[in-house]
Design brief:
Length: 67
């Protein structure tokens, strides 16, 4: 299990969506659309699942920061 993360379009920071899932089931999920309250901008950002990723602790060390 990991936290679904999205990138804040204003600051480029990764922000947690509050949705927890595992990477496999997230990858199989049909495209969905959601909104997340951004703690940095203090506003809601709309995002698609294709823009999001699952931040799992087990893969965190291997994952490269794409910038
Ligand atoms: Zn933001």
């Amino acid at each position: 299990m990991g936290m679904v993360m999205v990138k804040c379009p204003e600051t480029g920071h990764a922000i947690p969506t509050g949705i927890q899932t595992d990477r496999e089931s997230f990858g199989r999920r049909a495209v969905f659309f959601s909104r997340t309250r951004c703690p940095i901008c203090r506003t809601d950002h709309a995002w698609f699942a294709r823009e999001a990723w699952v931040d799992e602790p087990s893969i965190h060390m291997r994952r490269r920061n794409a910038g």
